Structures are given as structure tokens and as C-alpha cells.
């Protein structure tokens, strides 16, 4: 029997993730899609219907009524609560189905994931797991995302749900599926990672600006860093200086990618997580203050957060 999928949130990450599901799933499976911004759904149908049936629905509840497996990736905790728990239009309002599998991929706080997952379980609405992803828009397009998984019963793969690994494999690389523990644990890992990558990105922007303003050619400076102790994923793939790394958002005027406003959310999650466990977040706190200023600057709004280099007046 064909498995039917539901996808909620067709933004920068969701669109390519849903596209990979549609392209790789059986043509007998229907993909039900929902986004509050309906033009995204219309565009998705117009561009991808050749791969198999796609139906646009008008609420998360309708997605859950139709789909066996649901993937959601939406901005923040408030959106996740609405999508899952709204008494009228949320997933919780759909017909009960204890086998329904829900992969919630947004980057939100771990406590919200525990609250939402437990409410869903109590309502016999199915199995909710936190599955934040890493790899950004390029990883979503290539279908090579990593998944960090937290579940009610801290088990793995088939023990959580027979279709879990197969579903993540439509969007990601199995060697990068990390079972982190109980509900919320995937997010705990994700928040730590983003605390690190967010601070490294800002440090990279500052370091590149310092070196270039000191008279070092931008290409030479990158080569030096790439071959020295400052080398990092962020400098190699999200290098904030235009024209240094061809595939980085900076080289296409910071279009697409991970929005500056999203970094404020993630760095806040990191700083709050630090406070909750008694770790002083000195670098994260400093980065957060700067990202907050950048996120409301007209040069930065809605651009990839590496635009912080422009905010710092780095030479372009
Ligand atoms: P985005 O703003 O591009 O997309 C979010 C989408 O969700 C939009 O299309 C929006 O209309 C839709 N949406 C908002 N509220 C909704 C609701 N109530 N119901 C249905 N749809 C709703 O954001 P994004 O960059 O795709 O990020 C989404 C999540 O993924 C965030 O939590 C982010 O931190 C995380 N994330 C992003 C990246 C990245 O590189 N962009 C990487 C990993 C994780």
C-alpha cells in the first residue's frame, strides 16, 4: 500500500526537502502540502507535479487527515505550537491515528518539543519526534542533510517507527542520522552546533575584514586561513566575503540561505540553553548582540546571515 506524505512549511529549507520527497517517493504516493503563504504551494505544484501527485490543503489538520507521515519545518516554537496543537486547525484536531509519524525539523527549544510531543501522544495523534536538520539549503537541495533525533522512548530507527529511516533517507544521508536520546535531545545537539557555527561565522567575518583592511588580498587571506589553524566549515562554505568562495551565499549577494533573523533566534536558543545548564555564554552573548543589530539593518534583512560582513563594513 502506498505511503502518503504531508509537508508543512515550504520555505528556504522546506521547498527542497519536499522536492526530494516528491522526486524519490513512489509515484503512487500523494504528497499533501501546506504553507500559510499559499503562493509557495502553488509554485511547488506548478514546478514538480511531473514527479507524482501533489495536493495543496488549507490547514495542518487536513495534512494530518490525509498523510501517514508528516514533515514540518517552520520558523520558530510559536509556529510549531500552532501547527501541532491548535484546537481547530492543528494536527491534534485531525482524526486520531497512533501510527502517524511526525518529523518536526524546525530549530526550536527542547522544552517546546517535549510539550508538543507529549500533548500529541496523549491525544493519540501519533508519534512526534524532534528531528532538526543540518546542512543548510545546499544540503536540502542535494538530499544530504544530517538529522539529530530525539524520541519519546530513546531508541533508534525501526524501534521508533518502521518508516523513520526510509523517510529521512529521502532527504538526508544515513551515516549522518544521529540518535541523541529522549524527546528534545535532537534539539539540544542542534542548538549546541548552531551556537558554535554562529559564533565562528561572526569571527570569520571579523577576521577576514581585519586582514583585508590590513592590506592582504582576500583570496590569499582565505588560502592562508584554509591551510592554518583558523580553518572551519563556515569559512570554507559560508565565507562572508563576496567572490572568495563561489558557492557561498556572499558570492550571490547573500541571497537565499539562513536569514539574519533566524540567527538571532538560534543564538538566543543557545544563550538560553547555556543559562539553563549553568554555562556562561560569553562568545554567544556577544555574537547575539551584534546579530540583533544586523538583523534589523536594511542591508541585511532577509539575506543570508553571512551578510554580517557587510554590516561590519568589511571591504567588498
Ligand atoms: P523560511 O522562513 O524560509 O521558511 C519557513 C516557512 O514556514 C515559510 O514558507 C512560512 O510561510 C512557513 N510557515 C510559517 N508559519 C507557518 C504555519 N503556521 N503553518 C505553515 N507554514 C508556516 O525558513 P527556513 O530557512 O526554511 O527555516 C525553517 C526552520 O528550519 C527554522 O527553524 C530554521 O532555524 C531551521 N533551519 C534552517 C536552515 C537554513 O539554512 N535555512 C538550516 C537548518 C535549519
Automatic annotation (TrEMBL):
Q: Which GO terms describe its molecular function?
A: 3-hydroxyisobutyrate dehydrogenase activity; NAD binding; NADP binding
Key word Oxidoreductase present: yes
Q: Name one Pfam family in it.
A: NAD_binding_2
Any GO BP annotation: L-valine catabolic process
Q: Which PROSITE patterns match?
A: 3_HYDROXYISOBUT_DH
Associated pathway: Amino-acid degradation; L-valine degradation
Q: Which residues form the 6-phosphogluconate dehydrogenase NADP-binding domain?
A: 5-154
* A Gene Ontology term for the protein's cellular component: mitochondrion
Enzyme's top EC category? oxidoreductase
Which reactions are catalysed by this chain?
Answer: 3-hydroxy-2-methylpropanoate + NAD(+) = 2-methyl-3-oxopropanoate + NADH + H(+)
Top-level taxon in the UniProt lineage: Eukaryota
Domain 3-hydroxyisobutyrate dehydrogenase-like NAD-binding residues, every copy? 184-311
Oxidoreductase among the record's keywords?
A: yes
Which UniProt keyword terms apply here? Branched-chain amino acid catabolism, NAD, Oxidoreductase
For this protein, the Enzyme Commission number is 1.1.1.31
Q: Which family does this protein fall into?
A: Belongs to the HIBADH-related family. 3-hydroxyisobutyrate dehydrogenase subfamily.
Q: Which protein, by its recorded name, is this?
A: 3-hydroxyisobutyrate dehydrogenase
Q: State the species of origin.
A: Lachnellula hyalina
Instruction: Quote the gene name from the UniProt entry.
Output: Hibadh
Amino acid at each position: 500500500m502506498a505511503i502518503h506524505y504531508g509537508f508543512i512549511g515550504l520555505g528556504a529549507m522546506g521547498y527542497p526537502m519536499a522536492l526530494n520527497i516528491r522526486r524519490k517517493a513512489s509515484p503512487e504516493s500523494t504528497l499533501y502540502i501546506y504553507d500559510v503563504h499559499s503562493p509557495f504551494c502553488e509554485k511547488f505544484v506548478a514546478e514538480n507535479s511531473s514527479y507524482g501527485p501533489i495536493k495543496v490543503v488549507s490547514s495542518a489538520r487536513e495534512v494530518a487527515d490525509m498523510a501517514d507521515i508528516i514533515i514540518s519545518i517552520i520558523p520558530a516554537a510559536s509556529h510549531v505550537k500552532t501547527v501541532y496543537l491548535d484546537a481547530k486547525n492543528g494536527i491534534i484536531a485531525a482524526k486520531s491515528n497512533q501510527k502517524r509519524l511526525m518529523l518536526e525539523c524546525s530549530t526550536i527549544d527542547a522544552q517546546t518539543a517535549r510539550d508538543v510531543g507529549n500533548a500529541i501522544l496523549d491525544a493519540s495523534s501519533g508519534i512526534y519526534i524532534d528531528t532538526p536538520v543540518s546542512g543548510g539549503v545546499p544540503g536540502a537541495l542535494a538530499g544530504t542533510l544530517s538529522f539529530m533525533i530525539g524520541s519519546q522512548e530513546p531508541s533508534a530507527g525501526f524501534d521508533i517507527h518502521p518508516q523513520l529511516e526510509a523517510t529521512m533517507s529521502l532527504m538526508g544521508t544515513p551515516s549522518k542520522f544521529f540518535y541523541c536520546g529522549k524527546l528534545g535531545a535532537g534539539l539540544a545537539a542542534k542548538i549546541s552546533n548552531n551556537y558554535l557555527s554562529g559564533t565562528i561565522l561572526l569571527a570569520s567575518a571579523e577576521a577576514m575584514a581585519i586582514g583585508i583592511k590590513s592590506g592582504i588580498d582576500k583570496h590569499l587571506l582565505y588560502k592562508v586561513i584554509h591551510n592554518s589553524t583558523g580553518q572551519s566549515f563556515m569559512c570554507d562554505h559560508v565565507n562572508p566575503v563576496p567572490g572568495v568562495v563561489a558557492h557561498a551565499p556572499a558570492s550571490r549577494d547573500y541571497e537565499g540561505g539562513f536569514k539574519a533573523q533566524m540567527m538571532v533566534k538560534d543564538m538566543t536558543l543557545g544563550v538560553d540553553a547555556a543559562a539553563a545548564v549553568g554555562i556562561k555564554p560569553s562568545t554567544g552573548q556577544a555574537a547575539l548582540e551584534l546579530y540583533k543589530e544586523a538583523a534589523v539593518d536594511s542591508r541585511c534583512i532577509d539575506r543570508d546571515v553571512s551578510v554580517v560582513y557587510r554590516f561590519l563594513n568589511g571591504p567588498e
